[in-house]
Inverse folding.
């Protein structure tokens, strides 16, 4: 499993900013660790998650809301694609 860092989290938060979403970390009873308020473009993530949990949840949300990554800046698009690729590879069982 990957060990994600705060700079990785900050870059993901920047991607949400580019998509005009607000990311908030709050206490709540989220079954999946997050709440997506689509009409208001607000993402609420469980504030008790460590950095890894926050990154994984934000990746899940991006996968759900981002139909076209051409909406991102080139720098963010490259970062996002690499992060997704590395994350999916880390989930594969070793052969």
């Amino acid at each position: 499993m990957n060990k994600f860092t705060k700079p990785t989290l900050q870059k993901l938060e920047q991607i949400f900013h580019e998509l005009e979403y607000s990311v908030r970390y709050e206490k709540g009873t989220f079954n999946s660790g997050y709440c997506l308020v689509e009409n208001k473009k607000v993402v609420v993530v469980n504030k008790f998650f460590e950095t890894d949990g926050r990154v994984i949840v934000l990746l899940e949300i991006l996968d759900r809301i981002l139909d076209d990554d051409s909406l991102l800046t080139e720098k963010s698009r490259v970062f996002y694609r690499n992060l997704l690729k590395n994350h999916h590879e880390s989930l594969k069982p070793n052969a």
